[in-house]
Design goal:
The structure is a homodimer of 133-residue chains. Chain A has 133 residues and is mostly helical. Chain A folds into 2 domains: 64 residues, Orthogonal Bundle (Arc Repressor Mutant, subunit A); 51 residues, no CATH class. Chain A is 60% helix and 6% strand. Chain A has 6 helices and 2 strands; from the N terminus they run H-H-H-E-E-H-H-H. Chain A has a two-stranded antiparallel sheet. In chain A, strand 1 and strand 2 form a beta hairpin.
Chain lengths: 133, 133
């Protein structure tokens, strides 16, 4: 599994791990039904504490990206209930937009940024879209 | 100062404080040149540790939202260098979009979300834009 952790980052390691897995699902590096490495395996691979991996998996389960099963371990299973997802998305988008407004980025520039990044993610690994077609 | 901290949230308190101040600047609750409360004052008001406020102010300084002066304290001073801001914005936007893609939110729906939230922020307190006009 390709996970890059920046140990010098201000961002907590469990958060980086969550983000990388979400990005991996978005660009179809991880597909529905895929097994993620076991907690022990991933912790050893990256050289981090097992509790950190456990915390990341628990959050991803809570946010509807995977299921945790005693026998099968962590399995990608995205809950695509848009209404459930939208509150968190709106909150996070609000923060990104607040920063953009403070820094004088225009609404038009934000829309361009959204288009560019959306295409980049989809293109990164063939994209989730292609998989579903 | 209107700051609402959710002590039950998973999000670190210094991060919540940073976010609230950034939102406050975006909607012109705080304007260029405004003094923020002293570290001691804010810590006492919210009922949090002074180190937490210090950490939030230091991050906001580093990200170009305020200056810290021994005599004047924390003063809103936004560095509107778009190029410096854009890398962080792009990273955060990428994460929001990755979540949206995973959850099956379309590009069109994201653009609508951006329009809606952008207008909400600007309208919240008269908006930074109005101030500059």
């Amino acid at each position: 599994m390709l996970v890059q952790i920046d140990f010098d980052s201000d961002e907590a390691i469990y958060q980086q791990l969550c983000n990388q897995i979400i990005l991996g699902i978005a660009c179809s590096q991880f597909q529905e039904g895929d097994n993620l490495p076991s907690v022990r395996e991933l912790a050893e691979d990256i050289g981090i504490n097992m509790h950190t991996v456990n915390k990341a998996y628990a959050i991803l389960k809570q946010e509807g990206y995977l299921t945790l099963d005693r026998r099968r371990g962590a399995v990608i299973a995205v809950d695509t209930d848009k209404y459930k997802a939208s509150e968190k998305l709106m909150d996070e988008m609000k923060l990104v937009l607040a920063q953009a407004i403070c820094k004088g980025v225009s609404l038009e520039e934000i829309h361009e940024m959204v288009d560019r990044i959306f295409c980049e993610i989809i293109a990164e690994n063939g994209g989730r879209k292609e998989k579903n077609e």
